[in-house]
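Researcher: Good morning. I'm working through a list of sequences from a screen, and I'd like to move beyond sequence-only analysis. For each chain I'm collecting a predicted structure so we can compare shapes side by side. This is the next one on the list. No need for commentary yet; just the structure.
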Amino acid sequence: MNLTEKHPTVRRLLGVAATLAIAAPALLSVAASPAVAFSGAHCDRGEQDMWDNGPSRNVTARHCDIPAHNKRWYTVEIDTLVQTRYKGDTLDGGVDRTRTLHHRTIRCLGYTTDADKGTVGWFGCPPV
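Model: Good morning. Structure tokens for this chain:
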């Protein structure tokens, strides 16, 4: 007879310890998820062109805070996103309408910056 068969309390304590050992990493990952979400970029304003065949994969943004990481994808929170829909597939067709969206989150593959204009050019942003 081993110790756990003689003392049911020891068996219960071992079960509780095993449960905590399994659940603790899961609980920590849930608690860390807001911090991970916050590690994305944030921009006050963004502008995106819309064409007959769908949205542009590029977004021009202003007043951005960009995290210092080299991940493959960036999550970008934009306070105000202005989408300009053009007539046809060129700028020559003129503007059909604009739409302003608030508190949008997009994912983009990367970005370039233009320090002279104070803009960030996000590229590779699939439609949401």
